[in-house]
Amino acid sequence: MSTADDQTVGMSYLESLPRRFLRVYLPLGLIMVFLLFPFYWMAIATFKPDAEMYDYEKYNPFWIVHPTLEHIKKLFIETDYPQWMWNTVIVSVSSTCISLFASVCAAYAIERLRYKGSRYVGLAIFLGYLVPPSILFIPLATIVFQVGLFDGNLALILTYPTFLIPFCTWLLMGYFRTIPYELEECALIDGATRLQILTKITLPLSLPGVISAGIFAFTLSWNEFIYALTFISSSENKTIPVGAITELVNGDVYHWGALMAAALTGSVPVVILYSFFVEYYVSAMTGAVKE
Amino acid sequence: MAVMAEHGVAQVKRSSLWTRAFESRNFLGAMFMVPAIAILVLFLAYPLALGLWLGMTDTKIGGVGRFIGFGNFVSLAKDSVFWLSVFNTIFYTVAASIVKFAIGLYLALLLNERLPFKSIVRAIVLLPFVVPTVLSAIAFWWIYDSQFSIISWVLIKAGLITHYIDFLGDPWNARWSVVVANIWRGVPFVAITLLAGLQTISPSLYEAANLDGATNLQRFRHITLPMLSPIIAVVMTFSVLMTFTDFQLIYTITRGGPINATHLMATLSFQRAITGGNLGEGAAISNAMIPFLVAAILLSFFGLQRSRWQQGGRD
User: Fold this and answer.
1) What is the pLDDT of residues A175-206, one digit of tens each?
2) Which candidate, B111, B112, B98, B198, places its Cα nearest to that of A28?
3) Which domain holds residue A245?
4) Degrees, nearest 5: CA angle A287-A133-B45
5) Which of B40, B157, B249 is the mutation pick for testing A, counting most A CBs within 10 A?
6) Does A30 share its domain with A82?
7) ipTM above 0.95, yes or no
8) Residue B23 CA, distance from chain mean position
9) Which residues of B touch A259 (CB under 8 A)?
10) Are residues A80 and A186 in the same domain?
11) Nearest-5° angle of CA B106, CA B110, CA B113?
């Protein structure tokens, strides 16, 4: 780009279409192809019969000649997949609810009750957010085993909040901070208790924040892998990610069709949820970083 | 103020200890904190401490460990696989983070342009971050398959190569393959958060720069980058932390192979602790990650302080 052209940018409406195409649309398109191709590949493998999947000479690998539901049928009938999905739903919903409840209380206390030392507690919770599951899973495994939670949904429901609560609390603190004090003061003068203020004023006003935290927490727990891999051993207790990677591979035989079907059907619920709440999801993701 | 006044009224009107306790912010605050603190202490703080302890014992699965001090670290220091995993982790983190930052910033700048269907484009861009990592990693596994890789097929059809590439069988191919998968997963996060940062930069700054005759590059260098630097520091810290402690991608695509060439510290600690049963040694490996993480966090923390100070902020 020459310097003369650079002067005109900022008045980009003056830019000619071909030039804009090269500068914006083409690179954007290429990046989008890179980002979307694995999904396309996943989807196409799910509906491809085995004959086409392993024969690139006769059939164009980019397309399906005879779409089939064989892999999905196999996945749902011959494996514990429906059970894995059910486990994933139970675990995600419960751990999200627990985390939301604990986080709403904690964030309100830190941000609004401002008890002694609340600043430090807030900071400690943020630091908790930075502790990665990869350094916690070994000691957690021994704890889970000793407490007798090993190989059950409860092991996951109780451990997922360790990464959900710090995140949700941090996010909700930001939302609570934006609510004017005056509203709470009015309520206090009218004789409302703290609990009433929380449930009737603060929560309704910060509903977008609660939804954001909930959606993000739900997808985080749906995607969680290392705890589920470590704490669960029997097939019927596994979650989708763990089940797919451990049960659909028999030694060296990879059931690619079923694997892809599991990947696709396991992703669809989160993607649907996400598509309904994109704005909330984005504000959760960026909100946690902005502070 | 009003809180204090209300407190006074409460003391006059009601005097039972119980009701007074419920008016006290410290007591109420403690009550509100109970659920979160209970879970975090039990399942976060305690395991963290227990992990540090386990790393200094020779605990095996199903047995009680003995305290052996730094014995695990001494034996790890002589373990070439451990050092390979340290090298892999650093390589993986540095390579992936640099590219993620470059593509992410570029994508953020592109998305910040006037675009048709902007919100839909943004929603699509974020998809790799939303979808469960393990499940998309399975797709990458299939893309990198030695016999049916679509990349090899396309390159052969284009006449660029003659043999199928052994993506996951050769050490360096495997390393780059997992780095690409990590980049794919991480770019959306970097791009969308940086985009949020870009949108907070006041257009008047650009207008002023335009009037002064600043070029595109100058405006990027002297307005966009400085205004964006605090958020860049935070985003990249998160990105580095997530990459450094990554487990899912490696476990799904290569399981650390070929010949440990892609083992990260996290996957190696899983292999030694859970698969191999040496909890103590595994814990020592994951503890070895902590200094790196603390360094990354401190680096960005002090980086942030400096940039805030440069911008005239106080806190």
Assistant:
1) 888 888 888 888 888 888 888 888 888 888 88
2) B111
3) 73-289
4) 90
5) B40
6) no
7) no
8) 41
9) 138, 142
10) yes
11) 145
